[in-house]
Amino acid sequence: MNAPVQIDAARLAVLWQLSARAREAQTEETLGFVIVNETLSLVPYRQAAWWRAPAPVPGAVAAVSGLPQSDPGAPYVQWLGEVCRVLERRTTHPAAEPSPQAEGDSAGGAATISAGNEPSAGATDPLWPRALTADSLPEALAADWEAWWPTHALWVPLIDRADRSFGGVVFAREQPWTHLEQALFAELGRVWAHALAAFSPRKSWIERAKLTLRAGKHRRRALAIIACALIVPVPLTILAPAEVTAKDPFVVRAPLDGVIDKIYAQPNQRVAAGAPLFALDSTTLASRYALANKNYATAQEEYRQTAQLAVTDDKDRLDMALRKGKLDESEIDLDYTARELARVHVNAPRAGVAVFSDPNDWNGKAVSIGEKVMFLADPASVELTAYVPVADNVDVVPGTTLTLYPKSSPLVSYDARIDTVAYRAEPTPEGVVAYRVKATFTGGVKPPLGVMGTARIHGRWVPLSYYLLRRPLATMRQWLGW
What we know:
Elements: E1 4-7, H1 9-24, H2 28-37, E2 47-52, E3 60-64, H3 75-92, E4 111-114, E5 130-132, H4 139-142, H5 145-148, E6 152-159, E7 165-173, H6 179-197, H7 205-212, H8 217-230, E8 233-246, E9 250-253, E10 258-263, E11 269-271, E12 276-280, H9 283-309, H10 314-342, E13 345-347, E14 352-355, E15 366-367, E16 372-377, E17 382-389, E18 401-406, E19 414-421, E20 426-427, E21 433-441, E22 452-463, H11 464-480
Antiparallel strand pairs: 1-4, 2-3, 2-7, 5-6, 6-7, 8-17, 8-22, 9-16, 10-12, 10-15, 11-14, 12-13, 14-16, 17-21, 18-19, 18-22, 19-21, 20-21
Helix pairs in contact: 1-6, 9-10
GO cellular component, one term: cell envelope
InterPro entries: UPF0194_transport
Protein name: HlyD family efflux transporter periplasmic adaptor subunit
């Protein structure tokens, strides 16, 4: 049964004022100053110090009465830190021996405050202040008591409602501590711990989960909810980068070895059938054509002269066949060179959109015969090409549906059906080994050619536990080999 302690109106007002000052403190330094200095208006003492248990520095003396800030290297602060460490350990791991208890005193007043427990139970309550003398400390620390402190001291632990320790405050004076004063400090200790909790870092989700899963009905309910959620069926889906590509495009290749002289078409430009696309450098071929034309004229003249002499001379009649062969060879060379020179200019075999990279990347570039320069695509005939990484493959088969989410249109999506899946994974331009997936759009509206985005491939229904553990289990299996 709690024992009420009488407190007069004046002290109650000071207690209320100190509580308000503690809750209004903007920083830990301001709160520490209020604790060790302004508490003197409620309870008389000669020395006070606040020892902060948590980070940033475990066991640091954060504030000392009468000083703007404590010096960690001062002998008094070092001795005080050792004393507070001992007292804090006794608070979190209370010893069996009882703490000294003082006689309670009473005074007439208009209010009462609960002490939290009977005076004889103060030793078992971790929030109740503990009166100390030199005999309460180990011999190594008690030897220096008289050099730093008066006869009586009081340790006020700072523990919030979540059982987090923020250290404690120690007060020292010549007179013993009364039960009323201990009750006032017990109330202030709760206020100070509540104020310090506002400056402590937020708990991580792991810590909050541990508190939620504490033994009791909350833990059983949480485990039951988690167990039910893990067996809920969900669709096994994967995300893969995708691009809208042309369906059955016409590849325009280099007709012969050479250097590209000029690109007439522009990227994504609509071209009509027969429109010029690009041209190769014709300098070498023009020289060869001129030389072949000259050789053909020479061979033609030689054959004419030999044919005239063959009428009267049998020897020239024999050379006429040789001249005829040389003339035919020159004609073939001239015809071949003329056809090669005509192929220097490449025209569009059909209408479409010219798809290729920057023209500046092709001007002056040497190409080999058959090398792809661009392709002509029909804007109305498009398909979706997705790249499924090997690690994300979930047995994607033709006929599976997928949804394209374009990057340029966050509010638009397009449905498609998978037509083919590559049996062999290949490196993508980004260096990821993936399977190439081709899909046909099923809706009436199709995205423009060249649109890029993310494809969500819909798989079979699986339990949520399998959906969450599929990747970790696959990784463990690769490492462990089972």
